[in-house]
Amino acid sequence: MKGSTGGSRVVLNPEKLRTRRAMRYKQWTPQRLRSTGGYWQARILGTAVHLQIFDWLGNSGRNARAATNHFGGTREGWKIFLDALSAIGLLRKRALSYENSPFALRYLCSGNGSFLLSDYDAWNVWGRLSNSLTSGKRPKVAQPFFSKREQTGRLLQSLDKDARKIAPYLMARLPLSRSKTLLDVGGGLGSFAIACCRRSPHLRAIIVEHPRVVSFTSRAVNNAKIAKRVQVMGLDITKEPLPRGFDLILVSNVLHGQGARENRALLRSAYRCLNQGGRIVLRDVLMNRAGTNPDWGALFSVALFLHTPHGRCYALDEVRGWLRAAKFSGIKGPFRSSPLPFDPDSVLIAEKS
Question: What is the per-residue pLDDT for 21?
Answer without folding.
Answer: 54
